[in-house]
Amino acid sequence: MTGDQVVVHLPPAPLAATEPVAESIPLSVLYEDHDMLAIDKPAGLVVHPAPGHDRGTLVNALLHRYPDLAGIGGAGRPGIVHRLDKDTSGVIIIARNQAAYLALVHQFRQRSVQKEYRAIVRGVPVPVAGRIDAALARHPRDRQRFAVTHHGGRAALTYFRVIETLSDASLLGVRIATGRTHQIRVHLAWRGHPVIGDPRYGSRAQRRRDPAVPRQMLHARRVGFMHPVSGLPVEISAPVPMDMQAVLARLRSASGTAH
Questions:
Q1: 75, 107, 181, 243: which one has the fewest Cβ atoms less than 10 Å from its Cβ?
Q2: How far apart are CA 247 and CA 24, in angstroms?
Q3: Bridge partner list, 38
Protein backbone atom coordinates (compact mmCIF):
# COMPACT_ATOMS: atom_id res chain seq x y z
CA MET A 1 0.00 0.00 0.00
CA THR A 2 1.09 3.60 -0.51
CA GLY A 3 3.01 4.81 2.52
CA ASP A 4 3.87 1.31 3.78
CA GLN A 5 7.42 0.73 4.96
CA VAL A 6 9.29 -2.47 4.19
CA VAL A 7 12.10 -3.51 6.53
CA VAL A 8 14.59 -6.08 5.25
CA HIS A 9 17.02 -7.76 7.62
CA LEU A 10 20.04 -9.02 5.71
CA PRO A 11 22.09 -11.86 7.16
CA PRO A 12 25.61 -10.94 8.21
CA ALA A 13 28.27 -11.30 5.55
CA PRO A 14 30.03 -14.65 5.77
CA LEU A 15 33.43 -14.60 7.39
CA ALA A 16 36.34 -14.80 5.01
CA ALA A 17 37.63 -18.33 4.68
CA THR A 18 40.79 -18.86 6.68
CA GLU A 19 43.87 -20.12 4.90
CA PRO A 20 44.59 -23.81 5.46
CA VAL A 21 47.25 -24.58 8.05
CA ALA A 22 50.24 -26.85 7.62
CA GLU A 23 49.89 -30.29 9.21
CA SER A 24 52.38 -33.12 9.46
CA ILE A 25 50.62 -35.84 7.45
CA PRO A 26 52.60 -38.53 5.60
CA LEU A 27 52.73 -38.21 1.82
CA SER A 28 53.74 -40.72 -0.85
CA VAL A 29 55.58 -38.65 -3.46
CA LEU A 30 55.76 -40.26 -6.90
CA TYR A 31 57.62 -37.42 -8.62
CA GLU A 32 58.86 -33.91 -7.87
CA ASP A 33 60.89 -31.16 -9.49
CA HIS A 34 61.02 -27.36 -9.16
CA ASP A 35 57.71 -26.92 -11.02
CA MET A 36 55.40 -29.76 -10.03
CA LEU A 37 54.70 -32.76 -7.84
CA ALA A 38 52.85 -36.01 -8.23
CA ILE A 39 51.35 -37.61 -5.10
CA ASP A 40 49.92 -41.09 -4.64
CA LYS A 41 46.81 -40.04 -2.70
CA PRO A 42 45.50 -42.70 -0.33
CA ALA A 43 41.80 -43.45 -0.06
CA GLY A 44 40.17 -41.53 2.76
CA LEU A 45 42.21 -38.36 2.30
CA VAL A 46 40.20 -35.28 1.25
CA VAL A 47 42.05 -33.16 -1.32
CA HIS A 48 41.36 -29.67 0.03
CA PRO A 49 39.54 -28.12 3.02
CA ALA A 50 35.77 -27.94 2.67
CA PRO A 51 32.78 -27.79 5.05
CA GLY A 52 33.22 -30.69 7.46
CA HIS A 53 36.85 -31.20 6.45
CA ASP A 54 38.79 -28.11 7.50
CA ARG A 55 41.82 -30.10 8.68
CA GLY A 56 43.62 -33.30 7.79
CA THR A 57 43.48 -32.80 4.01
CA LEU A 58 46.05 -33.24 1.27
CA VAL A 59 46.45 -29.45 1.14
CA ASN A 60 47.31 -29.33 4.85
CA ALA A 61 49.91 -32.05 4.30
CA LEU A 62 51.38 -30.30 1.25
CA LEU A 63 51.78 -26.99 3.08
CA HIS A 64 53.77 -28.73 5.81
CA ARG A 65 56.18 -30.38 3.39
CA TYR A 66 56.20 -27.61 0.75
CA PRO A 67 55.47 -24.27 2.48
CA ASP A 68 56.32 -22.40 -0.76
CA LEU A 69 52.98 -23.64 -2.20
CA ALA A 70 51.07 -21.00 -0.21
CA GLY A 71 49.46 -18.48 -2.54
CA ILE A 72 49.77 -20.56 -5.72
CA GLY A 73 46.54 -20.99 -7.65
CA GLY A 74 43.07 -20.80 -6.12
CA ALA A 75 42.32 -19.50 -2.63
CA GLY A 76 42.47 -22.28 -0.07
CA ARG A 77 43.68 -24.78 -2.68
CA PRO A 78 47.39 -24.03 -3.14
CA GLY A 79 48.85 -25.87 -6.12
CA ILE A 80 45.73 -27.97 -6.73
CA VAL A 81 44.99 -28.30 -10.47
CA HIS A 82 42.54 -31.22 -10.30
CA ARG A 83 41.01 -33.44 -7.64
CA LEU A 84 40.07 -36.99 -6.72
CA ASP A 85 37.12 -38.05 -4.58
CA LYS A 86 37.93 -38.68 -0.92
CA ASP A 87 37.73 -42.46 -1.28
CA THR A 88 39.42 -42.67 -4.68
CA SER A 89 43.13 -43.40 -4.48
CA GLY A 90 45.92 -42.68 -6.94
CA VAL A 91 47.87 -40.07 -8.88
CA ILE A 92 47.19 -36.40 -8.29
CA ILE A 93 49.26 -33.59 -9.81
CA ILE A 94 50.30 -30.46 -7.88
CA ALA A 95 51.81 -27.23 -9.27
CA ARG A 96 54.74 -25.68 -7.38
CA ASN A 97 54.66 -22.20 -8.92
CA GLN A 98 52.12 -19.95 -10.62
CA ALA A 99 53.44 -20.48 -14.16
CA ALA A 100 53.21 -24.26 -13.75
CA TYR A 101 49.75 -23.90 -12.20
CA LEU A 102 48.40 -21.94 -15.17
CA ALA A 103 49.97 -24.33 -17.70
CA LEU A 104 48.58 -27.43 -15.99
CA VAL A 105 45.11 -25.95 -15.50
CA HIS A 106 45.09 -25.09 -19.22
CA GLN A 107 45.88 -28.71 -20.14
CA PHE A 108 43.11 -30.05 -17.92
CA ARG A 109 40.62 -27.56 -19.36
CA GLN A 110 41.66 -28.45 -22.91
CA ARG A 111 41.16 -32.15 -22.06
CA SER A 112 44.64 -32.99 -23.28
CA VAL A 113 45.58 -34.79 -20.05
CA GLN A 114 45.35 -38.59 -20.26
CA LYS A 115 43.69 -40.05 -17.17
CA GLU A 116 43.45 -43.80 -16.69
CA TYR A 117 41.82 -45.57 -13.76
CA ARG A 118 41.35 -49.08 -12.43
CA ALA A 119 37.86 -49.98 -11.20
CA ILE A 120 36.43 -53.19 -9.77
CA VAL A 121 32.77 -53.38 -10.74
CA ARG A 122 29.82 -55.70 -10.38
CA GLY A 123 29.09 -57.92 -13.38
CA VAL A 124 30.82 -58.07 -16.75
CA PRO A 125 30.07 -55.32 -19.29
CA VAL A 126 28.83 -56.36 -22.72
CA PRO A 127 30.56 -55.53 -24.95
CA VAL A 128 33.79 -55.86 -22.98
CA ALA A 129 35.04 -52.50 -24.26
CA GLY A 130 33.19 -49.37 -25.20
CA ARG A 131 32.34 -45.77 -24.44
CA ILE A 132 29.73 -44.07 -22.32
CA ASP A 133 28.73 -40.70 -23.73
CA ALA A 134 26.08 -39.34 -21.36
CA ALA A 135 25.68 -35.87 -19.86
CA LEU A 136 25.66 -35.47 -16.08
CA ALA A 137 23.75 -33.13 -13.79
CA ARG A 138 22.83 -32.86 -10.12
CA HIS A 139 20.38 -35.54 -9.04
CA PRO A 140 16.88 -33.97 -8.96
CA ARG A 141 16.15 -35.25 -5.42
CA ASP A 142 19.58 -35.71 -3.82
CA ARG A 143 21.86 -32.72 -4.37
CA GLN A 144 24.87 -34.65 -3.07
CA ARG A 145 24.65 -37.02 -6.02
CA PHE A 146 24.91 -36.74 -9.79
CA ALA A 147 22.90 -38.53 -12.46
CA VAL A 148 22.78 -39.07 -16.20
CA THR A 149 20.45 -36.57 -17.81
CA HIS A 150 18.92 -36.30 -21.27
CA HIS A 151 18.01 -32.64 -20.82
CA GLY A 152 20.93 -30.25 -20.45
CA GLY A 153 23.65 -31.18 -18.03
CA ARG A 154 27.37 -31.24 -18.77
CA ALA A 155 28.92 -33.45 -21.43
CA ALA A 156 30.78 -36.46 -20.02
CA LEU A 157 32.67 -39.16 -21.92
CA THR A 158 34.09 -42.35 -20.42
CA TYR A 159 35.92 -45.23 -22.13
CA PHE A 160 36.21 -48.66 -20.51
CA ARG A 161 37.69 -52.10 -21.20
CA VAL A 162 37.56 -55.35 -19.24
CA ILE A 163 41.02 -56.33 -18.03
CA GLU A 164 39.97 -59.35 -15.99
CA THR A 165 36.72 -61.25 -15.46
CA LEU A 166 36.17 -62.33 -11.86
CA SER A 167 33.38 -63.92 -9.81
CA ASP A 168 30.33 -61.84 -10.81
CA ALA A 169 32.69 -58.89 -11.16
CA SER A 170 35.27 -57.33 -13.46
CA LEU A 171 38.47 -55.36 -13.23
CA LEU A 172 38.19 -52.49 -15.69
CA GLY A 173 40.61 -50.07 -17.23
CA VAL A 174 38.82 -46.74 -17.51
CA ARG A 175 39.81 -43.56 -19.34
CA ILE A 176 37.93 -40.30 -19.04
CA ALA A 177 37.91 -37.59 -21.69
CA THR A 178 36.13 -35.20 -19.32
CA GLY A 179 36.54 -34.68 -15.58
CA ARG A 180 33.05 -34.34 -14.12
CA THR A 181 32.41 -34.91 -10.44
CA HIS A 182 31.75 -38.63 -9.76
CA GLN A 183 31.84 -39.25 -13.53
CA ILE A 184 33.19 -42.81 -13.55
CA ARG A 185 31.02 -43.89 -10.64
CA VAL A 186 27.82 -42.47 -12.17
CA HIS A 187 28.48 -43.73 -15.70
CA LEU A 188 29.33 -47.28 -14.64
CA ALA A 189 26.35 -47.49 -12.26
CA TRP A 190 24.08 -46.19 -15.03
CA ARG A 191 25.31 -49.02 -17.26
CA GLY A 192 24.44 -51.51 -14.53
CA HIS A 193 28.00 -52.09 -13.30
CA PRO A 194 28.49 -50.00 -10.15
CA VAL A 195 31.92 -49.75 -8.60
CA ILE A 196 32.15 -52.30 -5.81
CA GLY A 197 32.01 -50.68 -2.38
CA ASP A 198 30.50 -47.43 -3.67
CA PRO A 199 28.18 -46.21 -0.88
CA ARG A 200 26.53 -43.56 -3.03
CA TYR A 201 25.84 -45.16 -6.41
CA GLY A 202 25.66 -48.86 -5.62
CA SER A 203 22.26 -50.35 -4.72
CA ARG A 204 21.51 -51.43 -1.15
CA ALA A 205 21.51 -55.08 -2.24
CA GLN A 206 24.91 -54.67 -3.87
CA ARG A 207 26.33 -52.94 -0.81
CA ARG A 208 25.13 -55.80 1.42
CA ARG A 209 27.15 -58.16 -0.77
CA ASP A 210 30.35 -56.17 -0.14
CA PRO A 211 30.65 -56.08 3.67
CA ALA A 212 34.43 -56.53 3.60
CA VAL A 213 35.10 -53.81 1.05
CA PRO A 214 36.52 -50.75 2.84
CA ARG A 215 35.68 -48.14 0.18
CA GLN A 216 34.81 -47.68 -3.48
CA MET A 217 37.22 -49.76 -5.57
CA LEU A 218 38.45 -46.95 -7.83
CA HIS A 219 42.08 -45.96 -8.35
CA ALA A 220 43.70 -43.28 -10.53
CA ARG A 221 46.35 -45.52 -12.08
CA ARG A 222 48.08 -43.23 -14.58
CA VAL A 223 48.21 -39.58 -15.65
CA GLY A 224 49.94 -38.42 -18.84
CA PHE A 225 50.50 -34.78 -19.79
CA MET A 226 53.10 -32.28 -21.03
CA HIS A 227 55.49 -30.90 -18.43
CA PRO A 228 54.26 -27.38 -17.60
CA VAL A 229 57.68 -25.77 -18.17
CA SER A 230 59.82 -28.03 -20.37
CA GLY A 231 56.93 -29.12 -22.59
CA LEU A 232 58.22 -32.70 -22.60
CA PRO A 233 55.77 -35.59 -22.17
CA VAL A 234 55.37 -36.88 -18.62
CA GLU A 235 53.64 -40.10 -17.54
CA ILE A 236 53.17 -40.94 -13.87
CA SER A 237 51.71 -44.14 -12.47
CA ALA A 238 50.68 -45.33 -9.02
CA PRO A 239 50.47 -49.03 -8.14
CA VAL A 240 47.10 -50.53 -7.28
CA PRO A 241 46.87 -50.20 -3.47
CA MET A 242 46.75 -53.09 -1.03
CA ASP A 243 43.03 -52.79 -0.23
CA MET A 244 42.11 -53.21 -3.90
CA GLN A 245 44.59 -56.04 -4.29
CA ALA A 246 42.95 -57.82 -1.32
CA VAL A 247 39.48 -57.49 -2.90
CA LEU A 248 40.83 -58.78 -6.21
CA ALA A 249 42.41 -61.74 -4.41
CA ARG A 250 39.09 -62.64 -2.75
CA LEU A 251 37.21 -62.39 -6.04
CA ARG A 252 39.80 -64.51 -7.81
CA SER A 253 39.55 -67.11 -5.07
CA ALA A 254 35.75 -67.16 -5.36
CA SER A 255 35.94 -67.61 -9.13
CA GLY A 256 38.71 -70.23 -8.94
CA THR A 257 41.16 -68.18 -10.98
CA ALA A 258 44.79 -67.49 -10.20
CA HIS A 259 46.78 -64.38 -11.05
A1: 75
A2: 30
A3: 31, 93
How far from 204 is each of 6, 208, 210, CA to CA, in Å? 51, 6, 10
CA 244, 247, 253, 254 dihedral sign is: negative
Q: Rounded to two decimals, what is the model's pTM?
A: 0.88
User: DSSP letter at 166?
Assistant: E
Predicted confidence band of residue 16 (pLDDT cuts 50, 70, 90): very low
- Quick check: 77 pLDDT over 60? yes
Q: Exactly one of 40, 85, 87, 198 is catalytic; which is it?
A: 85
Residue 45 near residue 86 (C-beta atoms within 8 A):
yes
Place 156 in a pLDDT band, splitting at 50, 70 and 90.
very high
Spatial distance between the Cα atoms of 35 and 234, rounded to a whole number of angstroms: 13
What gap in Å lies between CA 137 and CA 155, rounded to an integer?
9
Task: Say whether domain 29-255 belongs to CATH 3.30.2350.10.
Answer: yes
